[in-house]
Amino acid sequence: MTDFTHFNEHGRAKMVDITNKKETARKAIARSSIQMNQQVYDSITENKIKKGDVLSVAQVAGIMAAKQTSTLIPMCHPIPISGVDLSFEWSTLENNYELVIHAEVKTIGSTGVEMEALTAASVAALTVYDMCKAVDKSMVIGQTYLLEKSGGKSGDYKR
Questions:
Q1: Is 85 a catalytic residue?
Q2: Residue 10: is its pLDDT beyond 90?
Q3: Binding site feature residues for substrate
Q4: What is the pLDDT of residues 83-107, one digit of tens each?
Q5: What distances in angstroms separate CA 30 from CA 79, 106, 151, 153, one per listed residue?
Q6: Among 23, 78, 87, 150, who pairs with 70 as Cys (CB 3.0-4.6 Å)?
Q7: What is the pLDDT of residues 35-70, one digit of tens each?
Q8: Which Pfam families match (predicted)?
Q9: Residue 124 pLDDT > 80, yes or no?
Q10: Which pTM does this prediction carry?
Q11: Which among 120, 40, 44 is positioned nearest to 76, based on CA atoms?
């Protein structure tokens, strides 16, 4: 375990200086999910949600969120993102349905895009909740975590 890098010599928060870090191709993939009942699942898959196409809106929300990460997370650097993609996959859990969300973010830069991928996946799940809460408020947003990342000084990571 490495030392935390977001504190200065006085123990106060700081943004890490990446001035001398080498630019490399970087990628991160994060996962989140949202569980729902059959009524919500049917409403989404049959395009019966009054607010519109849920997965299309969640896709755009995730992309927008990745681009705004540095305005939401205080110590994140604003970075040039070269690509964001979200994918959705359905699975069945007993009497519930789960929408699994994967967010992939890429850049060429001096710092990674893990936070951007995590933010994209999280906001996509929140968007699904927002669009479907009129049908059922008992949806549960599941664990959100980093699946993999590549590039940079710390190397590759795969969960």
A1: no
A2: no
A3: 75-77, 115-116
A4: 999 999 999 978 899 999 999 999 9
A5: 18, 12, 15, 20
A6: 78
A7: 999 999 999 999 999 999 999 999 999 999 999 999
A8: MoaC
A9: yes
A10: 0.92
A11: 120
DSSP single-letter state for residue 95: T
| Summary count for the chain: helices (H), strands (E) | 3, 6
Select from 122, 113, 119, 116 the least CA-distant residue to 143: 122
Residue 64 class from Cβ within 10 Å (0-12 exposed, 13-18 middle, 19+ buried)? middle
In the chain, where the domains are located:
24-149
The domain covering 24-149 belongs, at the CATH homologous superfamily level, to: Molybdopterin cofactor biosynthesis C (MoaC) domain (3.30.70.640)
Q: Which of 2, 33, 27 has the alpha carbon at shortest distance from 112?
A: 27
* Tokens of residue 38, six digits: 């059959």
What is the CA 42 to chain-centroid distance, rounded? 25
